[in-house]
Amino acid sequence: LQECRVGRNDIATSPSSEVEDSIALHTEPLALKRVLRSIYDNDPSVTALDFSPGDDERFYTDASCRLLAMALRDNQHVRKLNLKNNKIGPQGAGFLADALEENKALSQLNLNSNTIGDKGASAIVSALKINDSLEQLYVENNGISQEVMEQVVYAMMLNNQPSTLKACMDRLADNDPSLTVLDFSPDDWKGKVVDDMAMRIMATALLHNTSLLSLDLANNSITAQGAVYLADALRSNTTLEHLDLRNNRLREEGGRAISQALKANSTLSWINLDGNGIPFDILEEIQANVNVNAHPLSAEHSHLTITAPDPGYSVASPLKALPYKAKPQPHEDHPERAFNTLEYHSALDHDIFADAMKDSRYMLM
Q1: Which of 12, 62, 136, 256 could cross-link with 108 by S-S, CB 3.0 to 4.6 Å?
Q2: Whole-angstrom distance between the N-terminal and C-terminal Cα of the chain?
Q3: If you average pLDDT over residues 273-291, what whole number do you get?
Q4: CA distances (Å), 204 to each of 174, 227, 231, in order?
Q5: What is the helix, strand, coil percentage profile of the chain, to 5?
Q6: What are phi and psi of 275, to 5 degrees?
Q7: Beta-carbon contacts of residue 336 (< 8 Å; ≥ 6 apart)
Q8: Strands 304-307 and 361-364
Q9: Coil, strand, or helix at residue 216?
Q10: Beta carbons of 116 and 142 less than 8 angstroms apart
Q11: pTM of this prediction?
Q12: How far apart are the C-alpha atoms of 363 and 365, rounded to whole Å?
């Protein structure tokens, strides 16, 4: 049976729709007919669905996706859905996108070698603004333009990050003036933490952000590569003042990246790098640059008193004052002495370490 007309029979709308759906299902591939009721019933044993067509089986179409999407909306157990090599178009992708907005279980969707095009891909991108569960999406060979494919890639990158980051990215990128503090420490999260990919996404927004003042990234999974991304942002950012990177995995390479970036940064005045395996000499360099930003030299500070080193000194606790002169400025007659030259950094290191700072604590009087 592939067609059944029940018009003008005084049948209520809902039963009539059920009849239509039953007839529609009767024309679908046998595998879908066998499993659809189990998906509706939220059968915990059904966790993966492979609907790639066999040699003797019908193709899955937009109509198939409509039936499947209705069953998946409230399903809590299906994790993987394979629909590659079928005849699913933009409309079918739209049905699946509607399901993704409500589904909280599906983590992998394979739509390779269909015909969803830009319209279908864009529908999925829109759904991913709401969906937080999908981690893997395959849409190759679907006639998708490079521009829309880039949107798909970015949406999936963001979907694999902590929900806190996903929720604030638009505000961060749009330079929302009310967004001045961000806390990504995962004390009460369930699952994802900030990693190098998250830092890549975040650093892109931080490059030109002029509102964020405090960023807490403690207790995450950021390595040296993530520190490099963050360092690139710090070179350009002119407002961030507070940065907590405790208990990540930056190591020596990540520490050096942060240290070099701070030679070009004039606003970061507090940083915590405890628990990152960064050598002490690099921590000293970082702290010295942070202290310059925290206490720029003023005219009335004309002399200082040296006290014994504080045994509790750490990179998280900046000195209360800086006695040494501010970073050297390029001379008018020598424009080549820009801040990113070796000569400038050499002069800075000499001022910081040779004159005063190493292993001592100084207080302005």
Answers
A1: 136
A2: 95
A3: 94
A4: 12, 13, 11
A5: 40, 10, 50
A6: 75, 30
A7: 330
A8: antiparallel
A9: strand
A10: yes
A11: 0.68
A12: 6
In the chain, the amino acid numbered 329 is Q
Here the tokens at position 13 are: 């709308």
Q: List the structure tokens of 203.
A: 């650093």
What DSSP state is assigned to residue 285? H
How many alpha carbons lie under 13 Å from residue 363 in its C-beta half-sphere?
7
DSSP 152-182: HHHHHHHHTS-HHHHHHHHHHHTT-TT--EE
Question: Cα separation of 88 and 23, whole Å?
Answer: 20
Task: Give the helix/strand (H/E) hosting 49.
Answer: strand 48-50
- C-alpha count within 13 angstroms, C-beta hemisphere, residue 245: 27
Whether the per-residue pLDDT at 26 is higher than 60: the answer is: no
Least-confidence region, from 52-61, 189-198, 227-236, 327-336 = 327-336
Which pLDDT score, from 0 to 100, does residue 332 have? 47
The type of residue at 189 is W
| Least trusted range by pLDDT, from 30-34, 256-260, 316-320 | 316-320
Longest dimension (CA), the chain: 99
Q: d(Cα 260, Cα 238) in Å, to the nearest integer?
A: 16
